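Reviewer comment 2.1 asked that we show a complete input and output for one of the modelled complexes. We chose the pyridoxal-5'-phosphate case, as it is the one discussed in the main text.
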Amino acid sequence: MTINVTKAYLPPLADYEAYLKGIWERGWLTNNGPLVQQLEAELSSSMDGAQVQFTSNGTIALQVAIKALGLTGEIITTPFSYVATTTAILWENCTPIFVDIEDRTFCIDAAKIEAAITPQTTGILATHVYGYPCDVLAIEDIAQRHGLKVIYDGAHAFGVRLHGRSLLNYGDLSTCSFHATKLFHTVEGGAIVVKNEALARQIWLYKSFGHIGDEYFTLGVNGKNSEFHAAMGLCNLPRVADFIKQRQALAAIYRAELQQLPLQFPVPTEESLEYNYAYFPILFASEAKLLQVKEALAAQDINTRRYFFPSLNQLPYHTGASCPVSEDVSRRVLCLPFYQQLESEQVVRISQIICQEMTA
Ligand SMILES: *Cc1c(COP(=O)(O)O)cnc(C)c1O
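Response of the prediction step:
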């Protein structure tokens, strides 16, 4: 039986059907319906009361966020993220300026940001990689001193808490992805998490065609999401705490089974971190070793993912300045199968194949 790197969670069908029944009764399918409102309210209370706007995906959330903050010119960003982080910047006609990552957390290296600031810089867009936080306090300090806006791509950060508050509450705003492959999902979906009221209204307009009823305020796109997607979110949200516990247990097994091998793992630097166990990445000593193990696992029908590869400063359609740490890490990092429905025996088996391949 094939083991994939992730497996979308499906709630008991009866739970979803109960929500469908309500949708059928109301005949209200989309456009800020009651389930969307309920999901936004529940998400908001899990994020210390910040406003949460449910969007059609995590990519449109990034694009709308960039536009709503009025970013132009250059945006300082990380080369170690999913491609959507960079393409959202390009799509909004801004230039991504890549700043290399830290070798412990794989997040943007805050100590290198200031050297990249120019008169054209308007913002910073950084990713909490695998759910490990960026150095949010250092970034906030730099942004304040240089008058820059801060967006966090929190696609991996759902459920993470730092210094006692939701990690999605830092920066001017955070975006999130609720894609089927993510820890918490709504099939397709995403969110913008924002505290400032005026900014929240601007975001709402941008993602809702720029008008309310017959009153037209601004340019807009269609970035909203439907009752069907909200229903999936409402089914999954109460289970996220259990997902995290189950993943924590599986991560502990991987760690124990792999501990003798010459592998590295990302190291969180914040003591107050409450982590979400979103992914299980391992860093090999060389790309050759990675490819060898990846192939050995694939031969047993076990799929892994080079996530993230390539380093985004090396995209074929937009090349940025060299980022040696990111380029090196992206060549050597592999995400192992990791989802709460994975069985401990499967984790042991995957680990044993890796051990055999690396000690042969
Ligand atoms: C998944 C992901 C996105 C894109 O989210 P979609 O909902 O798939 O559009 C953006 N950034 C990161 C870091 C991601 O992992």
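Residues 57-59, 81-82, 84-85, 127, 153, 155-156, 177, 179, 190 surround pyridoxal-5'-phosphate (CB under 6 Å). We note this here for comparison with the apo prediction described in Section 3.2.
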